[in-house]
Design a protein that fits this description.
Oligomer: single chain
Distance between the termini: 29 Å
Largest sheet: 5 strands, parallel
Radius of gyration: 18 Å
CATH class of the largest domain: Alpha Beta
Helix content: 55-70%
Number of domains: 2
CATH superfamily of the largest domain: Cobalamin-binding domain
Number of helices: 9
Number of strands: 5
Strand order of the largest sheet: 2-1-3-4-5
Order of helices and strands: HHHHEHEHEHEHEH
Structural class: alpha/beta
CATH architecture of the largest domain: 3-Layer(aba) Sandwich
Amino acid sequence: MSGQLDKIYDAVVNCDKEAVTDFVKRAISENADPLAIFDSLNAAVKSVGNKFGKGACFITDLVATAEAMKAGAEIIEPLILKQKKSIRTLGNVAMATAEGDIHDIGKNIVVVMLTAAGFNVLDLGVDVPTERIIETIEKSKPQVAGVSALLTSTVTAQEKLIGELGRRMMRGNVKVIVGGAPVTKEWSNQIGADGYAADGPAAVNLVKQLLGVE
């Protein structure tokens, strides 16, 4: 069975969605444990994520690897739920690009790298209203909420979120982290965020630190 899992791993690293789909289906037909398949998918993305962090591959490689991984994950997730098994996770994180901002490359990288590191990530997308982020915090109860802003005109949405959480007596329910090209550590401190990350690897380390996990 390790042969099929190795093929799945290689297909993800090579960004080959069709091969991933084919090998995952074959592994299932051979009664492979869905969690073992997930671990192989996850390990492949983590490997590429580590290379990206070292500057050994490009953003496009990382994104394409994530898409290949998703192709396999979509097949096995129903099986995992059917068996009532849970995917091992270090914690739950919600990620969004600030209201008024449609840039998503930075957010997507953080989502991929957090997922590869073992976190369950809820990606809310781009141009996300503050109210929707708050509703997500209320309903899904992520331990960390990350807000990315790539425009100087949208960084204020990060401050607005923290202010609204405070006014609703919810600030203690979630750790808020911020990032994006115009965002700085000083801005993070000024608005009362729980942390600032300049890139994907830094975001992973920050979330681990905030949640006390390795």
